[in-house]
Design goal:
This protein has 8 helices and no strands. It is mainly alpha-helical and 142 residues long. Helix 4 runs antiparallel to helix 7, helix 4 packs across helix 8 and helix 6 runs antiparallel to helix 7. The protein is elongated, with a radius of gyration of 19 Å.
């Protein structure tokens, strides 16, 4: 996956179609494998409200860390800290501009938090499904 494809966001309809496709595949699993899938999914799926809260309270990028997007989180944190430190220097205007820009970018993520987390969770569910399905293929008694 390239950085540009990672930064590109699917639209809500495509994300909902992905979720339905994954749910349909999961429904076709045998009962024991489906139970395994749901146990794993319960542990690994993320909450959109937690993501939104982290974004709302801390524009420093904690919501990116919550979804495991470490690079974007560190970039966000670096820009935030740089802007904050610049507020106490003669470069006050540039620091303020950095904070305004990072806030504007993160506001967009805040308003799309449901979609962002749903897309992330689709990726998690698909990965778990593939693990469960691969286990099904390997298992001689299934």
């Amino acid at each position: 996956m390239t950085i540009s494809s990672a930064m590109r966001m699917k639209n809500k309809q495509a994300i909902e179609q992905d979720e339905e496709r994954i749910r349909k595949m999961v429904r076709e699993l045998p009962d024991d494998k489906r139970l395994w899938f749901f146990r794993e999914a319960e542990k690994q799926l993320k909450d959109p409200d937690t993501y939104a809260t982290l974004n709302f309270l801390f524009i420093a990028g904690l919501h990116h860390f919550y979804l495991g997007k470490w690079v974007r989180g560190f970039i966000n944190l670096g820009i935030f800290l740089t802007g904050f430190v610049m507020l106490f220097t003669p470069l006050f205007g540039a620091g303020l501009l950095l904070l305004i820009v990072i806030t504007a970018v993160e506001l967009k993520a805040l308003f799309q938090s449901q979609t962002v987390v749903q897309d992330y969770n689709n990726g998690v569910m698909e990965r778990i499904y593939r693990e469960v399905a691969a286990q099904t293929e390997v298992s001689p008694d299934s």
